[in-house]
Amino acid sequence: MTLLNQAQVEQLKEITTHLRQVRQEKSIRIEEIAAQTLIRAGVLHALEEERFEELPEPIFLQGFIRRYADALGLDGNALSHTLISNPVVRQDPKNDRKNSDNKPNTYIPLVVTYILLLVAASAGLLHILNPPQITSESLTPEVNNEQSIVSKTNKLTEK
User: Fold this and answer.
1) What pTM did the predictor assign?
2) Where are the transmembrane segments (predicted)?
């Protein structure tokens, strides 16, 4: 899960405590809530036991809280919006390090790529539409040409 700021963690603890108390008062098992809300029982257990590191992103938590509260007969929208009233602080140390170590990116305009693609396509199309002219003489080796000359001269001398 991405890091929540301290205010959001405290708010999430209050919400999950309230949800757990209401569920226990109504004598509803977590498995029943899981079946009704289509939220895995493991996620619901992690929510109630405040194991927030096992939970998905905050945007998913909002939906889980809303559906969980609705299943208990509470106002799910109001509860889920209290979690987002404090903005999420995303801290990704890998991203900070990666940005500082990178060399500046070379920028190749997209137009250059399109022009090169058009030139290559045009050359290929020109080659396909105008193939080189192939004659029977160009296909026969020089040895055959010499033999044909000799045979022609022999025919002329015989006459």
Assistant:
1) 0.52
2) 107-129
